[in-house]
Write a structure and sequence with these properties.
With 177 residues, the chain is mostly beta strands. It folds into two domains: 60 residues, no CATH class; 112 residues, no CATH class. It is built from one helix and 15 strands, in the order αβββββββββββββββ. The strands form four sheets. It has a six-stranded antiparallel sheet, with no helix packed on it. It has a five-stranded antiparallel sheet with strand order 6-7-8-9-10, with no helix packed on it.
Length: 177
């Protein structure tokens, strides 16, 4: 009689440990966060033994995560990177003029726009988000946490969904809001 109770307890402790391990495994790089769901089903049948069965672990997308992190628009003229810390898009060809380069920028200026938790504005950077291997189709979106970029034929719009701040970028124009 004591043995089936110990077995159930051992299996329950093992299932709890596996669940805690799965939850803590997602700590660290918030760019690849997933939500792990584990279900434990206990069946009781008449007789001396009780069996516990744990179903397979299922990975579900983390809240606020959809679409590619690094992508190009279908025209290939705009490339973007979306992270939990912000969103940035660079443009290859455009007919508008960027504002004057600030004295504090010692790198390339005006080739793109970025939004993060604190500000929205032109990029001063020595790198680029152009050339991504993935295309974000028109009518599609990419999101990481509170930063959302939406691809449309007219251009790309990236927004901090918590504050409403962001930008629109296209060959013909840009807008910071």
């Amino acid at each position: 009689m004591v043995r089936p109770v110990r077995r159930r307890l051992s299996i329950a402790v093992l299932a709890l440990a596996v669940g805690l391990l799965a939850l803590t495994a997602g700590c660290g790089d918030d760019e690849e966060a997933t939500v792990t769901e584990e279900r434990t089903v206990t069946t009781t049948e008449p007789g001396p033994a009780t069996e516990t069965e744990t179903t397979a672990v299922q990975d579900l997308p983390a809240p606020g995560v959809q679409g590619p992190r690094y992508f190009s628009t279908p025209s290939g003229n705009i490339g973007c990177y979306v992270a939990r810390s912000g969103a940035r898009c660079d443009i290859r060809k455009h007919s508008w003029s960027s504002p004057p380069e600030p004295a504090s920028c010692e790198l390339d200026y005006g080739q793109g726009l970025a939004v993060d938790g604190d500000s929205v504005g032109f990029v001063c950077a020595g790198d680029t988000t152009l050339g991504a291997p993935t295309t974000l189709a028109y009518g599609s979106a990419s999101q990481r946490g509170r930063f959302l970029c939406e691809s449309e034929e007219a251009g790309i719009t990236c927004t901090n969904v918590d504050t409403g701040e962001g930008f629109f970028l296209s060959r013909e124009s840009y807008r910071i809001f």
